[in-house]
Amino acid sequence: MDHQRYRRMHGHTMPSMKKAEFEVALKGKKQIAAGTMAFVFEKPNGFQFRAGQHIRMTLIDPSETDNEDNSRFFSLASTPQDADLVIAMRMRDTAFKRVLGRMQIGEKALIQILLDVPHRAFTLHDNASKPAVMLAGGIGIAPAYSMIKDATERKLPHKIFLFYSNCRFRKF
């Protein structure tokens, strides 16, 4: 799905899609690869999602903003069984990511999630007789990781094939 479609799905233009909204506190953050961070947020009571599903995160009263807005969409890298919510991202130089990178433990952000996973959303299909083939590159591994970990934890009979590529550019 493209960025504009995400915006329509979470905006006011698709009222039939119900969403839930939660304030979540930052519990931790760590570098997981060069230029890539994982952020761990508390999982609110009653928060439910399918592995691979995305959220919309909005910074609450950010110290700086730019023309890219104070909201972003992230696939959850955690599974529904995990105690916390994890998002991972490349740390580009944007106001949103600078503010998120400076967040202190306990500070809060607002997240929204669709209550019904839309048809053709990026989640593992239910038909275990059909193999699941995933193609991922770079930080796009986050939803694939969530789905594979979830399938493993739930001992699903699916055959899952992951093709992953990542490159690292060096400055000379």
Q: Can you offer a commentary on this structure?
A:
The strands form 2 sheets. A 6-stranded antiparallel β-sheet has the order 4-3-6-1-2-5, with helices on both faces. The protein has a two-stranded parallel ribbon with strand order 7-8. It has a domain at 3-120: Elongation Factor Tu (Ef-tu), domain 3 (Beta Barrel). The mean pLDDT is 87. It contains 3 helices and 8 strands; from the N terminus they run H-E-E-E-E-E-H-E-E-H-E. The chain starts with a helix and ends in a 7-residue tail after the last strand. The longest helix is centred in the last third of the chain and has 13 residues, at 141-153. With 172 residues, it is an alpha+beta fold.
Record the SSE blueprint.
Blueprint: H1 3-10, E1 19-33, E2 36-42, E3 54-59, E4 71-75, E5 84-90, H2 95-102, E6 108-114, E7 132-137, H3 141-153, E8 160-165
Parallel strand pairs: 7-8
Antiparallel strand pairs: 1-2, 1-6, 2-5, 3-4, 3-6
Short description:
The protein is an alpha+beta fold. Helices cover 17% and strands 34% of the residues.
